[in-house]
Amino acid sequence: MSKLSKKSLIASTIIGSLALTASNFAAADALTDLQKAEAKTFKASQKSQSKIDNIYEQTLNLLAEYRNTVDEAEILGEYNDHVQRMVDDQNANIKSLEKQIAGIDKTKQGVVPLMYKMIDTLEKFVELDVPVNVEARRERIQGLRDVMGNSNVSVSEQFRLVLEAYEIEANYGTIFAAYQGEIEVDGQKLTADFLHMGRVSFVAQSLDYKHSWVWNNQTRAWEELGDEYTKPITDGIRMARKQLPLDLTKLPVFAAGAQ
């Protein structure tokens, strides 16, 4: 091989090497650019994913808030329905009260005459009944008449007092009691002990135990008893006053149409 050929071959080799080196540099630059592009893409992807995560989290929060709002709306709706029912019931009660108030005057017009009739009937009953505590009972009836003429006493209170008087009269039929008072016999007034067993038996005894009487409701008068009743009546009075234990005793029965 000539020197010229060798020089040409060496030059070609050098040129080829330079070309290969330049190619390698170019490839390296392209790889670097690719890596940078991938890095940018990765960062962009991370940012996008972060945004997606934030949006997803916000969506979950909004969904939870929406569900809470819906639940609260349902609860409020049910509560409002409940309140409305109460309001409707109150309105109905108000209308009912208004009707009752409007009818109070008519009710008074009917009740007041009724109370006067009840007092009159009670007074007649007391005068015809066994005269147990008769003075106190008459005073109670007079008190009712005074209350009926008192403008400061409401109609309802007047009616309550009339019913209370009737209840007291009814209790006289079941009470076993003794008290001290005055008895009129043969035109004379004497202090005596009185004993009544309901309305079945009403007797009296002088304080010196010498005389005993039984009330005859048919003749409306006291009738004197024999000595055989002295001790039973004395024991009965003491039992009613809780001075003796309750026990069987013999009392004359001569009351309210019975012998």
TrEMBL record:
Coiled-coil spans are 56-107
Q: Does the keyword Signal apply?
A: yes
Q: Which residues form the signal peptide?
A: 1-28
The UniProt entry, under InterPro entries, shows: UCP028069
Q: Which domain of life is it from?
A: Bacteria
- Which keywords does this chain's UniProt record carry? Coiled coil, Signal
Its protein name is: DUF3450 domain-containing protein
